[in-house]
Design goal:
- This protein is 80% helix and 0% strand.
- By secondary structure, the protein is mainly α.
- 35% of the residues are buried.
Length: 124
């Protein structure tokens, strides 16, 4: 049942129906408890709704629950960058790459942030 409801909530997220996705994911978290996946999905919804601080809170909790999955750090890095925490975002992308050295998107995003920080040589 949880899997089916999660799929429906993710479909709402992908369809851009953020209010409905937020309500569905919050309901799932209340009913089934916090999981790294549910918190990550809800963080993504909140970030799309420009509720950056709340999104970061969900990404923080997602990382705490599943610290071995690189995507958790990459998601949190995106939120940190949106909040202006460049150093925190860079550190999270570095951790994501440490966990998954083949993640081309994390490498690209890290390079962009390092460049943004003014270190052109290191960015390349």
């Amino acid at each position: 049942m949880l899997e089916k409801k999660t799929e429906q909530a993710v479909h709402l997220l992908k369809s851009g129906e953020f209010e409905k996705a937020l309500k569905a994911l919050t309901s799932l978290i209340e009913e089934y408890g916090s999981s790294a996946d549910l918190l990550s999905y809800r963080g993504t919804v909140l970030l799309n709704m420009k509720r950056k601080r709340e999104a970061l809170n969900d990404f923080d909790r997602s990382v705490d629950l599943d610290p071995g999955y690189s995507y958790r750090y990459a998601s949190r890095a995106f939120a940190k960058d949106a909040l202006g925490d460049l150093a925190g975002a860079i550190a999270d992308y570095e951790k994501a790459i440490e966990l998954d050295p083949d993640d081309a998107i994390a490498h690209n995003n890290l390079g962009l942030l390092v460049e943004k920080s003014g270190n052109q040589t290191k960015a390349k």
